[in-house]
Specification:
- It is a single chain.
- The chain starts with a strand and ends with a strand.
- The chain is of the alpha/beta class and 463 residues long.
- The strands form six sheets. A seven-stranded mixed β-sheet has the order 14-15-16-13-12-18-19, with helices on both faces. A four-stranded mixed β-sheet has the order 1-2-6-5, covered by helices on one side. A four-stranded mixed β-sheet has the order 9-10-11-21, covered by helices on one side.
- Helices cover 37% and strands 23% of the residues.
- Keywords: NAD, Oxidoreductase.
């Protein structure tokens, strides 16, 4: 996917089965060193037009393949990803700043698993059939593919359009040319051209709520189908009967995994007053154990944040909290960060825990998307449900309690698309994934994805 030029990687767009150079490029920085390591195409209308044209040409070929043929190709893709897992992990770690351990154990294996899951589920979909004997008619439903879709991804916080997941090896797997096209660029140029293109009826977007509003406005005149996976301000609710030996390490992980740059990360922790002091002491002690440093070091827990601009934004949230009178118990501005020689200019930050902060604070209301979490006390079940729901987002939540009745009651009343109880980030792709309120529109999963990417048609036959 890349050519070497003056020792810098130069990425090219992948259109119609070929790598196509671009007339202009954007510098891409290695977040762990602060140095430019790559040039990325700055695509616009021309490149988007070429990609849409290639996809239109490939659509009849791909859509006429049987489910079994498509299943075999997706499984072959998974094989190829697994074969080159280490190379993909290294590239992902270098590009995103995430630890090599996280890329090796989560990102790349998950990509292969996703292909395998849908390779299997495509073989098991059924359609409906009804009979009206009185008029001699049979009705059945038929699923037809919507058409060209765009998966528009953007690194949420930085608004830079810097997200490139790399071209997985499509050809050896048997994917026909033009079925998958990769166009790099900024949201304002490449993204806008895709969203406004009349021949793209479907948009799947992962990113900020602000960008999603723009996509909704621009796509509305074309009546496009949208799936929007947006921000979160995810609460963890910890009752006094929680098993803290499980709860504390899991909540540290849910707060700081991938530098807190996961839309499902916990950023508001509500702890029942009876265990508040003990929880805080143990939680901070555990957070301080997380090692920050060179992402390629397998012993490191926290890598670099995605960009210099985003690091400043996250640090500013901590400063605002301090200015409001909140207490920073560990991390930013409290503990010193020692970095290896080669990473002095990287975008690193210590896991940061904030306490004694008001629910109205911007740190409790806005998505920070970094290694920062706020811990506050609560008294009653009714009170904590109201406070947890008192934000514009509703993506994910976690509930910790050994009372099974309480677990069900609270989970059902939280305004959240996903609720984990006594665990975090346990996913089953059969089930719907997505958010409420400003966290998005639509769901993904076996049944939900099938319905999103196809149109249902009712056919009536009189005999």
């Amino acid at each position: 996917t890349m050519a070497h030029s003056k020792a810098l990687l130069v990425l090219e767009n992948f259109i119609g089965g070929r790598f196509i150079p671009c007339s202009s490029y954007i510098d891409s920085y290695n977040p762990s060193t602060g140095d430019v390591y790559c040039k990325v195409p700055d695509s616009g209308k021309e490149e988007v037009e070429a990609a849409v044209k290639a996809a239109k040409a490939a659509f009849p070929i791909w859509s006429s393949k049987s489910p079994l043929e498509r299943s075999q190709i997706l499984n072959k893709l998974a094989d190829l990803i697994e074969h080159d897992l280490e190379a993909f992990a290294q590239a992902e770690s270098k590009d995103q700043g995430k630890t090599i351990t996280f890329a090796r154990t989560v990102d790349i294996p998950r990509a292969a698993y996703n292909f395998r899951f849908f390779a299997s589920s495509i073989l098991h979909h059924t359609t409906e059939c009804t009979e009206m004997a009185t008029v001699g008619c049979v009705h059945y439903t038929f699923r037809t593919p919507v058409g060209i879709g765009t998966k528009h991804s953007k690194v949420k916080p930085a608004e830079q359009g810097k997200r490139y997941d790399g071209c997985v090896p499509f050809f050896p797997s048997g994917v026909p040319p033009g079925v998958v096209n990769v166009v790099f660029g900024t949201g304002s140029k490449a993204g806008e051209a895709l969203v406004c293109h009349p021949d793209v009826p479907l948009i799947s977007f992962t990113g900020s709520t602000l960008t999603a509003q723009r996509i909704t406005e621009k796509s509305a005149p074309h009546c496009k189908r949208l799936s929007l996976e947006l921000g979160g301000k995810n609460p963890a609710i910890i009752f006094d009967d929680a098993d803290l030996t499980q709860c504390i390490p899991t909540t540290v992980r849910s707060s700081f995994a991938n530098q807190g740059e996961i839309c499902l990360c916990t950023s508001r922790i509500f702890v029942q007053r009876g265990i508040y002091s003990e929880f805080l002491k143990r939680f901070v002690a555990e957070a301080k154990k997380w090692k920050v440093g060179n992402p390629s070091d397998p012993t490191v827990d926290v890598g670099a944040l995605i960009s210099k601009e985003h690091l400043e934004k996250v640090k500013n949230y901590v400063k605002k909290a301090q200015a409001e009178g909140a207490r920073v118990l560990c991390g930013e501005g409290v503990d010193s960060l020692a970095l290896p020689t080669g990473n002095q200019k990287g975008y690193f930050m210590l896991p940061t825990v904030i306490a004694e902060i008001k629910d109205e604070s911007c740190c409790m209301q806005e998505e920070i998307f970094g290694p920062v979490t706020c811990v506050v006390a609560f008294d009653t079940e009714e009170e904590v449900i109201e406070r947890a729901n008192n934000v514009k987002y509703g993506l994910a939540a976690t509930v910790w309690s050994s009372n099974v009745g309480r677990v069900h009651r609270v989970a059902q009343r939280l305004q959240s698309g996903l609720v984990w109880t006594n665990c975090w980030l346990v996913r089953d792709l059969n089930l719907p994934f997505g958010g409420m309120k400003a966290s998005g529109i639509g769901r993904e999963g076996a049944k939900d994805s099938y319905e999103f990417f196809t149109e249902v048609k009712t056919i009536t036959i009189k005999h």
